[in-house]
Amino acid sequence: MSPERFAELLATCYMANEERLTRDLQRSLPFQDGMFDRWERARRLGFGERTSIYNSATVFGDVRVGTDSWIGPNTMLDGSGGGLSIGSFCSIASGVHVYTHDTVLWALSGGALGRAEGPVSIGDCVYIGSQCVIAAGVKIGSRCVVGANSFVNDDVPDGTVVGGSPARKIGTVVGESDKVCIVFDSAR
């Protein structure tokens, strides 16, 4: 089959799937996210049942994810520096980067120092907002919220809402199940 014919068949397949996604789900996705089953990818990666991960997400090293979690498009899950564990019922929004290593001191020292490494763990029932960066060695407890565009470089205790760069406590998660809510700290 010629490259031109292959491209034609691929475009036809993509357009048929695009029409289905638009009709059934009112969405238009980039090629890789629209063409491949995100639940099947999660199964292939050994993630928990009913978990999904978009095809545009990058996964390095030892990454474990519990059940019923959602890993959004264009995320980076780096478990190469000590492992990354994400609990159940987590939502990792679009563009989130989670790192278990960095090369900051290696670069600043002209290679005299090695890369820094540290495992990252994210508990159950956690929401990580779009475009967050989670640094190596961080532990985020259960029932936490990390506001969009935050840089998390320190541990986050259970039931805490953080935001900013670097992330700081801005609220608390209270209640349980269908009675859960966020209480933001008052301005000081």
Helices and strands, with pairings:
Layout: H1 3-25, H2 31-35, H3 38-44, E1 52-53, E2 58-65, E3 70-71, E4 76-86, E5 91-92, E6 97-98, E7 101-102, H4 104-108, E8 116-117, E9 120-122, E10 127-128, E11 133-134, E12 139-140, E13 145-146, E14 151-152, E15 160-164, E16 167-174, E17 181-184
Parallel strand pairs: 1-3, 2-4, 3-5, 4-6, 4-9, 5-10, 6-11, 9-12, 10-13, 11-14, 13-15
Antiparallel strand pairs: 7-8, 15-16, 16-17
Notes on the structure:
The chain is of the alpha/beta class. The chain folds into two domains: 1-35; 37-184, Hexapeptide repeat proteins (UDP N-Acetylglucosamine Acyltransferase, domain 1). Helices cover 21% and strands 32% of the residues. Strands 1-3-5-10-13-15-16-17 form an eight-stranded mixed sheet. Strands 2, 4, 6, 9, 11, 12 and 14 form a seven-stranded parallel sheet that branches. Strands 7-8 form a two-stranded antiparallel ribbon. Strand 15 (160-164) and strand 16 form a beta hairpin. The chain starts with a helix and ends with a strand. 27% of the residues are buried.
Give a short summary of the structure:
The protein is of the alpha/beta class and 188 residues long.
Offer a few descriptive terms:
17 strands; 188 residues; 8-stranded mixed beta sheet; alpha/beta; 7-stranded parallel beta sheet; UDP N-Acetylglucosamine Acyltransferase, domain 1
Largest sheet: 8 strands, mixed
Form type = globular
Approximately how much helix is present in the residues?
10-25%
Q: Give the spatial strand order of the biggest sheet.
A: 1-3-5-10-13-15-16-17
Instruction: Report the CATH C-level class of the largest domain.
Output: Mainly Beta
Q: Distance between termini?
A: 68 Å
